Amino acid sequence: MGKKLNFIVLCALVLISLVFTVDYDFTGAENINKADTAWMLVSSAFVLLMTPGLAFFYGGMVNKRNIISTMLQSFVALGVVSILWVIVGFSLCFGDSIGGIIGNPLTYFNFKGVGLGPNPDFSETIPFLLFALFQLKFAIITPALITGSFAERIRFRSYILFIVLFSLLIYAPLAHMTWHPEGLFRNWGVLDFAGGTVVHMSAGFAALAGAIYLGKRKVKQHEPANIPFIILGTGLLWFGWFGFNAGSSLGANADAVAAFANTNLASAAGMITWIFYDRFQNRKMSALGACIGAIVGLVAITPAAGFVTMSQSIFIGFIAALASNYAIRFKNRREIDDTLDVFPSHGIGGIIGMLLTAVFAKEVGLYYGETETFLYHLLALAITAVFTFGGSWLLYKLVDAMITLRVSPEQEERGLDDSQHGEYLQD
Q: Is 240 left (phi over 0), alpha (psi -120 to 50) or beta?
């Protein structure tokens, strides 16, 4: 039964989508702002490109027997989450609020009511459908980020089931609480411009839970298989991140420009801080270190991108790179096998970004003498950590009970490219 489960679920989703077919609704389409719509179309494409970029970034870090499987774990999220999002995922995130925790799954079921005119509750100038598609790209990359923590040892179809459950039960409530007008965190005044809490912290804590639950690899290899893949992936991620952050302004406006500038500066600061700190510690100034530092800077600026100054964005990238660098060294001395350092990079980077957003956010931050925002951020941080780590742990156990989560020792030794996909790189 386990071998047929994925296909049966897919057939059911396709039939549901067909039965509840919704035609395009052009009502109000004449009210859209063409400049804002053009920018958001471009931003959505930018963010989509980040997932293939992540595939190259992760794929270059693993050993040669697992490059294809690792890249596919990121890439397949484009398909799985896209279908899920249309049917029920978007409604769970942005449907009518149920207690400020989750959206009503029937509000926008199968994109009912998601038309080509603006929805003033979310954006007054772009088509509501475009808003939904932009948010889809965030939902896609979040479970893809998690894969780096259990790379080289998870069964592919078990992973697919996990990302379905994670998207519905972990990502959706966090997105609703943070970004919905009636969401719990949003009503507390918690600031997350582009997904520091929703994307990076959730992925980081889920990654930590996965690394602990699956246990260590049989053979831990820290030498990357393909450094050029890592550099290419970093470039694609950095490029796509401009849509991720600047696009979260939801228009071609001044906030988009500020977020664009802050994104670039924080990443630049993260990169040079990482390699200079490595040299300060008598380590080589490596290409791998430069790439990780750049990504950490991008992670940390994400929640703050539209709320801080350029100088503050440089400081955020600097602090996040130092904290993440230390976290990776600390983790390597422990028993936790987070294969590609997802929690030290995205978890720690997300935490630093969230807290420094509450420090530097204009007019409401600690830097400006206000304490309420910072205290609510601490509370939201605690809730997010417990919810995402504990919830993800339970999901790993559930998936493991339904379909064995970890590959056999023989399959792990053979490599996941061959054992899971029947494909491998030629020598």
A: alpha
